[in-house]
């Protein structure tokens, strides 16, 4: 007798082994678990700070590159860096300029300060026949000073050549401090003349020395004679301020070469100069200021004195 089939064992679902279904369930559970773990891992990760991602994956910023205020770099950032460098350079230039403006006085400013010191001043003026009379510039300049202060001037005794004549008291009163001028000028003298008689021609320690030579020099002896005189003054009176007059042009400006040599020498020695020649040449007609080919006339002497007054006034 043929036995009937068991429905529980003959259907398609009923025919799969139990172990296969358990495997499927296990794989599904593992997939869900993996998804949950990934989700939790992503939630627990720290977010990147703003901008870090761009810095890490974008174009690297070179070491030392400058960025602008808004964080931009490249051409604009480089411009900002250049501007900073220019500012530093400008600051350095300004600092140098400030250092110059606040540094030591110029030689001419030192000479001016002597005359404005508020204490008695002794001036030694050494020169030649363009400054040896009462009609010439040293005496005329002394008269200008006497307008507001006590001034006396003594002229070198050109005959005896061993001292000074009695002083001319140009003013005994005034609000300014007293000035004593020793005008040691000798006709025909060069800068070598005072050296051999320095203790006589500069009878007391001066606060200011004016040198007025050149007409009796040649290009061959000008520098050496001036150097010898300056050395003698320095030996006797230390660092007294010395001012050099660049003498007026002779007819045809025949003394131009000597004058330029003296100017160069004075500049190299750090001495103040007063450009008398420039004042004469600026007038246009040189003959109107000369008495002869070498000496100034009265108008020339007055121009000379005025030029010195302006140069030595504050």
Automatic annotation (TrEMBL):
All copies of domain SGNH hydrolase-type esterase, residue ranges: 167-302
CDD domains xrefs: SGNH_hydrolase
Any GO MF annotation of the entry: phosphatidylcholine lysophospholipase activity
Keywords, in A-Z order: Hydrolase
Signal peptide region: none
Gene3D superfamilies: SGNH hydrolase
Region annotation Disordered: where it falls in the sequence: 49-107
A Pfam family per the record: Lipase_GDSL_2
PANTHER family: SGNH HYDROLASE-TYPE ESTERASE DOMAIN-CONTAINING PROTEIN (PTHR30383:SF5), THIOESTERASE 1/PROTEASE 1/LYSOPHOSPHOLIPASE L1 (PTHR30383)
Protein name: SGNH/GDSL hydrolase family protein
Organism: Ornithinimicrobium ciconiae
